[in-house]
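U., I forgot to send this yesterday:
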Amino acid sequence: MAQNDSKRALAVKLAQMQQKADGSAMAEQLTASAVQPLLAGWSQRLDETVPPARQKDVRDKLDVELKKYADSTQKVVEAQTAKAAEAALVPIFMEKLSEEELKQIVAYMESPASAKFQALGPDATNAWAKRIVDATKPQVENGAKNFEAAANRIVTSNGGSSPAKK
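Result:
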């Protein structure tokens, strides 16, 4: 029984460490997934129903309300991240990891090497992303041009007017 208690304590500690490391990003991602559909829906509805001369004023007012919703949603989600981390992660850690593995993971996560590695995260991620962007930029831009041309043909052939060239 004592072994199970020490394993559980390690699993709880690991869940708390993971929540601390990933909780903010998860809350932001979940908030964005709640906000984005509203933003997209209302943006389209605005374009379809509000005369162009009034759209900026209406957009500004909608942005204020959307920010209120986003801020409120962020607080609600953040409040649940810590609670949900332990409830969701501890059973998985208990089932999938041995006590020795939990000890090793916790020891690593508390080590200076782990702290140094984590600190590299933003720089490493940015360098990686830059490489991907640099390597794919011509194909992505060409694909966007092809989409724009196809979309323009579709819209103009269905009674729309041709957009002004940028």
